[in-house]
Amino acid sequence: MAILDILHFPDPRLRQRAAEVDQVDDQLRQLVDDMFETMYQAPGIGLAATQVDVHKRVIVVDISKDQDEPRVFINPEILAGDGVEEMDEGCLSVPGVYERVQRAEHIRLRALNSAGEVFELEADGLLAVCVQHEIDHLDGKLFVDYLSQLKRQRIRKKLEKQRRLGIDDTAAAEKHAEPVI
Ligand code: ZN
To answer: In this structure, are residues 129 and 6 in contact, taking their beta carbons and an 8 Å threshold?
Structure first.
């Protein structure tokens, strides 16, 4: 297992659309293991392959407190969504930033598991929000895209300044109660 580097906004590689996985093999399962290790270490509750510069449609999620409910979604597809959920979201690729985003409250989705088998799942609340956030990553979209341009520019400047000064915002992120997806 290995900890992978997480790309940060505004890295243009976060804008790439990930390709469908056509074979779930040992190499892909290795990627999944590495993604879990990276996500748990961050710590976060979701991670998309795009964030670690692998442009394949793979996401990992674990919304449990004890990090003992790992979920893998390969080629995830939202079949239906309804209702409105508003939550403060954070993102491992946008460290230290939390903003309110509106998403579907309830979704039905289809994906492959790590054995390459198709499954369907109904999700709501935090799990639904997390999956929608991660699927956005696979499409090259970030949660800051839901904010006003002015706000997005302010966030971009803040992150660029932090990088320039070599500030790591992980400590601030850990103090925040909202989930980092
Ligand atoms: Zn994210």
So the answer is: no
165 C-alpha vs ligand 1 centroid, how far in Å?
23
Cα(136)–Cα(160) distance, integer angstroms? 23
CA of 24 to the centre of ligand 1 (A): 23
Measured CA angle at 73 (ends 21, 145), to 5 deg: 90
CA–CA distance, 27 with 37 (Å, rounded to integer): 16
Taking the C-alpha atoms of residue 60 and residue 153, their distance in angstroms, rounded to an integer, is: 29
Running along the chain, 181 residues long, what does each successive block of 10 average in pLDDT? 94 98 98 98 96 98 95 98 95 94 97 98 97 98 96 93 79 59 74
134 catalytic residue (yes or no):
yes
Residue with tokens 């309830």: 106
